[in-house]
Amino acid sequence: MEKTLRVAVALWPGLDQQVLEPATRARLAEAVEVLQPLPVDLATQPDEVLADVDVLLAGWGCPALDGPLLDRLPGLKLLAYAAGSVKATVTDELWRRDVAVSSAAAANAVPVAELTFAAVVMIAKDVFRIRDSFRASRGALPVEGHGPAGPVGTRGLKVGVVGASRIGRLVVERLRTLDCSIAVSDPFLTADDAAAMGAHLVELDELCRWADVVTLHAPAVPATHHMIDSGRLALMHDGAWVVNTARGSLVDTAALESECASGRLCAFIDTPDPEPLPEQSLLWDLPNVVLTPHIAGSLGTEIARMGELAVDEVLRFAAGAPLHHRVRHSDLEHIA
What we know:
Layout: E1 6-10, H1 15-19, H2 22-31, E2 33-34, H3 47-50, E3 55-58, H4 67-71, E4 78-81, H5 92-96, E5 100-103, H6 105-124, H7 127-137, E6 146-147, E7 150-151, E8 158-162, H8 166-175, E9 181-185, H9 191-197, E10 200-201, H10 204-210, E11 213-216, H11 230-235, E12 241-244, H12 253-261, E13 266-269, E14 289-291, H13 303-318, E15 326-327
Parallel strand pairs: 1-2, 1-3, 3-4, 4-5, 8-9, 8-11, 9-10, 11-12, 12-13, 13-14
Antiparallel strand pairs: 5-15, 6-7
Helix pairs in contact: 2-13, 6-8, 6-13
């Protein structure tokens, strides 16, 4: 009789309740043996317990799977990661041991795209400035259809999407519900691929010159460090917005702060660099800057979506079926 897979759930204590809802947990337990108690502290488990683990269903709170830890997990065959980026957990040693890796980044991409789309719509409707003037005047000032950057509204808005990543594509998909123009810049994308997405392909400098809103969805890799620097910010027209729900390192913070402090550009920043920003940063108090504390990714009820995806992957693996969300070592240079 074929051995039942033994699964260890490695997450921060309490997070397992959000990641694995009762129905998802029951589905997992029906197909595999789940190591108890839940979640497992890998550092304190006896070697003989970890020796029989076939699958790690992990996420936030799981340590990096380095050589010493993997020596205690000699039977590990799959890391099913119930979170976004696997980069903090996978190691060269993990790849050398040919452990399969799956990521729930596709599930985490959904709320990021939703928040980005909502931010673009609110920017187009001038919601943030109108909110402040409405509050300050106690409703005495009329709302007009023309703001500092021009006419208010989504019709005719020009949105530049930097990165045809999973999230970038979801953002484009949602933007297509608006009567707006969409450009995308990505060195790995062809013009035909961009057209199939519903966008036109342009170089990054051209995108910065053209767009009313530049929204960033590229991975944090050496080639993208400060890709939005002082030169590219200078290309953007007065009143344009930078939206960053990706990685803070994509933007030169000092250059962005200078442009926003002058009043020339505006920004919606969920992922600053550094994170959090220093208390003295001007970005905290500028009226043309919206700062949120890295909330674009999965929060609250959204976290369970990642658990569902990870369990689906474990069940596919148990059945000998191909993984749908496999990550390979070569993918790391292209993902967040």
